[in-house]
Amino acid sequence: MSSGILINTTWPWLAVSPDAIACDPQAGNGVVEVKCPFKCRNQSLSLAVDKLLFMERCINGFQLKKAHAYYYQMQFQCLVTGFEWADFVAWTPTEMFVERVAHQSDFVEQQLEKLKDFYSRGLWEIEAWTLGLC
What does the pLDDT look like over 44-67, one tens digit per residue? Predict the structure, then answer.
C-alpha cells in the first residue's frame, strides 16, 4: 500500500513519508523504505556492499548500519505511524535485500529530545533573524 506524508499529532513539526505501508499477517502493519543505490546500478549489492556507506557485512551477509541516517529515518517512521517495524529494502537491477528493523523506542526517545531542542532553538533563531535581532 502506498503512502504520502504522515504528520505526528503530538509534534506537528515531525513528519515522515515512507515509501509504502506493508501488511504482514503475523506481524501487523509496518513501513517500507526502499533505496536504489546508484553506485550499484551495474553490479549486485553483494559485490558493492563495501562501497556503500549505509550497509555493512555481517555473519548473515549484510545489514543496515545502525549509525546511518536511513536507520534513524525508519525509526522515526515507526514513531509517527505507531508501527512496530520497518522493512529496509535495497534494490539493484540484479539483487534485492530486505531487512526487517524493529522499532527501538528507547533509541527514538533519546533522539526525539535532541530534535525537540534543535526545533525550538531553530525557530528562535529564525524568528530573531526575521525581527532583525541578529
Answer: 888 887 888 898 988 988 899 999
